[in-house]
């Protein structure tokens, strides 16, 4: 009896080995090393209306994988954008202190020294640099003084071009959605050529549209070529200065003062004392400025709740009278037809989200968006306040903002119903805000290599199959042996 059990032992061991091998191969492996060391990077997004700080983090050992860098935390700087400190530059630096102190706490102390810190300023500072280059230089010098007082690896404060802003927003969106490269379940890098996502950004002072195009751009100013993970991308991008939300509101106020003595986009029953200096100080309203005006004068402007007149006022922002190329968006700017999926973030998202969630209006089609805009613009101040309690200081401006978004998409960029159905309004992908900041950091830290990632570390699919078959063969052999040894013993008693 003992001899029989002993003779069964080798094939049983063999079977166990085969089974264990198969299980090890098929069960997904998990790293049992200690938690990976993280690296951090900080970007200050100095927009025209406010500054946001984003802290990003990624596992140090997986630096070049896509989708690995995510948002660790963020902070909204109190007060206006840095460009609003033109008369008090040191205040611009001081305004950042609270968020930078938060960064000292959010990033582990031992990582402070190696953490890159960038400040990128956008259209608000582009405008200030246009109207007063000295003032913009002073503001940048002041924020630089503050940022260098921190232990982080400060890599400079600069003004991004509109082109950079558009391209980095596009890079961020497509990086987060893993449209460049994907780590497949077989352990191989895949190039998911399902196409990239177009990106639309609406800031306070400018708006950007960026998407991949098939042919060359007729205007080289609108074309950027990128090589990411070994793939070549031909990108169309344009940034419209003075077409950000806040500047559009200023321009509409200026033309309301010029043409009507009331504001057709504001709700009836609402009125406001408008300081002429505030309306006309921006380079964006320079053309509308009267020859003589008393800059300390205030004019009372009342709302009209007039959707048709408001549409007329907004549509004058888009000049389609001439196009030096085969096709244009507006103002004589080349643009190929919009194609593929699009994501619209920042103020695009906030505007449409207001229509959807606060007003409870559907905006799934262009036509629904149009009638939602008319509904909002037709509300009196009392109705609007009742429908959107707690919507804050922006409430009187939602009609103008929504009218502008709708006109920009249809009249400006020529979205039709089909193209619109492929557009989503979204502010985040996972936990990470979609905007230019992440793409900017990825580029400046070389976290997106131009070349394809090196060969995979684990075993590749071919050898995996060979080893799998080997273990299966061992298991089969063991079972055959077992059967042969068990049968002669059992058969006599069975008969
Ligand atoms: C990431 O890519 C860069 C350039 O391709 C390379 O120098 C670096 O070593 C890579 N990092 C890792 C962790 O693979
Ligand atoms: C301000 O504008 C000028 C002219 O376009 C440009 O050369 C300069 O680099 C800008 N300043 C900054 C800080 O970007
Ligand atoms: C501008 O208006 C203020 C008061 O509104 C007045 O005191 C001042 O004299 C005016 N200046 C000019 C140049 O008219
Ligand atoms: C539109 O642009 C054309 C050519 O650039 C210009 O002549 C015309 O005055 C503009 N129209 C308006 C309403 O701004
Ligand atoms: C605006 O609202 C009034 C009622 O408050 C309604 O009679 C009118 O038809 C509406 N106009 C539009 C364009 O929706
Ligand atoms: C990214 O950075 C490299 C330098 O590291 C630069 O040459 C390239 O133009 C940047 N890409 C974009 C889109 O600005």
From TrEMBL:
Membrane-spanning residues: 461-483
Cofactor: Ca(2+); Mg(2+)
Enzyme Commission (EC) number: 3.6.1.5
Signal peptide: none
Domain of life: Eukaryota
InterPro entries for the chain: GDA1_CD39_NTPase
PROSITE patterns named among the record's database cross-references: GDA1_CD39_NTPASE
MF GO annotations: apyrase activity; ATP binding; GDP phosphatase activity; ribonucleoside triphosphate phosphatase activity; UDP phosphatase activity
Keywords associated with the record: ATP-binding, Calcium, Disulfide bond, Glycoprotein, Hydrolase, Magnesium, Membrane, Nucleotide-binding, Transmembrane, Transmembrane helix
Entry's Gene Ontology BP terms: nucleoside diphosphate catabolic process
Family recorded in the similarity comment: Belongs to the GDA1/CD39 NTPase family.
Name this polypeptide is given: apyrase
Organism: Molossus molossus
Organism taxonomic ancestry: Eukaryota, Metazoa, Chordata, Craniata, Vertebrata
């Amino acid at each position: 009896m003992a001899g029989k059990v002993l003779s069964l032992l080798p094939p049983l061991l063999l079977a166990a080995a085969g089974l264990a091998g198969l299980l090890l191969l098929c069960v997904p492996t998990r790293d049992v090393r200690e938690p990976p060391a993280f690296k951090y990077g900080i970007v200050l997004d100095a927009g025209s209306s406010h500054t946001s700080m984003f802290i990003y983090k990624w596992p140090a050992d997986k630096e070049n994988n896509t989708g690995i860098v995510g948002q660790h935390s963020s902070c909204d700087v109190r007060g206006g954008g840095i460009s609003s400190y033109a008369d008090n530059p040191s205040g611009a630096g001081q305004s950042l202190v609270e968020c930078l102190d938060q960064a000292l706490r959010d990033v582990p102390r031992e990582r402070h020294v190696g953490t890159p810190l960038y400040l990128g300023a956008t259209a608000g500072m582009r405008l200030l640099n246009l109207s007063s280059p000295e003032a913009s230089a002073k503001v940048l010098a002041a924020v630089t003084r503050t940022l260098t007082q921190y232990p982080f690896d400060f890599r400079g404060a600069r003004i991004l071009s509109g082109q950079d802003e558009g391209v980095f927003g596009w890079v961020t969106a497509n990086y987060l959605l893993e449209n460049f490269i994907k780590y497949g379940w077989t352990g191989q890098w895949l190039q998911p050529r399902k196409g990239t996502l177009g990106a639309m950004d609406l800031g306070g002072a400018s708006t950007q549209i960026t998407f991949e195009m098939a042919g060359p751009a007729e205007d080289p100013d609108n074309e950027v070529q990128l090589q990411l993970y070994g793939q070549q991308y031909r990108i169309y991008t344009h940034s419209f200065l003075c077409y950000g939300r806040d500047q559009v509101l200023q321009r509409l106020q200026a033309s309301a003062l010029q043409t009507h003595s009331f504001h057709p986009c504001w709700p009836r029953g609402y009125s406001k004392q408008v300081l002429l200096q505030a309306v006309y100080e921006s380079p964006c309203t320079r053309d509308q400025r009267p020859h003589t005006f008393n800059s300390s004068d205030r004019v009372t402007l009342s709302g009209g709740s007039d959707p048709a007149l408001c549409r007329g006022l907004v549509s004058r922002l888009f000049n389609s009278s001439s196009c030096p190329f085969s096709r244009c968006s507006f103002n004589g700017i080349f643009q190929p037809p919009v194609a593929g999926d699009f994501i619209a973030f920042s103020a695009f998202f906030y505007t449409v989200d207001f229509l959807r969630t606060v007003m409870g209006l559907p905006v799934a089609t262009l036509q629904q968006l149009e009638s939602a805009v008319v509904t909002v613009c037709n509300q009196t101040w009392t109705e609007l306040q009742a429908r959107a309690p707690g919507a804050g200081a922006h409430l009187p401006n939602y009609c103008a903002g929504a009218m502008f978004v709708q006109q920009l998409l249809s009249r400006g960029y020529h979205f039709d119903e089909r193209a619109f159905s492929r557009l989503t309004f979204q502010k985040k992908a996972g936990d990470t805000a979609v905007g230019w900041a992440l793409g900017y950091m990825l580029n400046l830290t070389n976290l997106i290599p131009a070349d394809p990632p090196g060969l995979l570390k684990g075993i590749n699919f071919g050898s995996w199959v060979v080893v799998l078959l080997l273990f299966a063969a061992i298991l089969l052999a063991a079972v055959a042996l077992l059967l042969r040894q068990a049968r002669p013993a059992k058969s006599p008693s069975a008969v």
